[in-house]
Amino acid sequence: MDQQHFWLLVSLKLSGEATEEELQELEALIQRYPETGLKLEAISGIWNDNTPPPDMTHLFNSHANRLKQLGDWTENTANHWEETPGTLPVMKIKPRLAYFLMAAGIVIIFLVGRYFMQESGNLKNEELRATNIITTQRGSRTTVQLPDGSKVWLNADSRIHYDERFKDDLREVQLEGEAFFDVKKDSSRPFVIHTSFIDIKVLGTTFNVKSYEDEDATETSLISGKVEISIKNNPEKKIILNPNEKLVVKHNIDNDAIKNKAGDESALIVVKALRKDPAYKNSLETLWIDNKLVFDSETLEEVCKKLERWYNVKININDEKMKKDNYTAIFDGETLLNVLTALKMADKLDFTIQNNEVSIFAKK
Amino acid sequence: MKDQSEYIKDLLMQISEADDMRAYEKFYYSFYTPLYNFAFSIVGSKQQAEDIISDVFIKIWRFRKSLPKVNNISTYLYTSVRNGAIDYLNRKRKYKIIHFSPSDYKDIFIELRNPSDHCISTELMKKINAAINQLPPQCKVIFRLVKEDGLSYKQVAEIMHISPLTVRNQLAIATRRMGEILPEYIHEDFSSGKKEKV
Question: What separation in angstroms does the CA of A209 have from each of A140, A222, A284?
Answer without folding.
Answer: 17, 9, 13
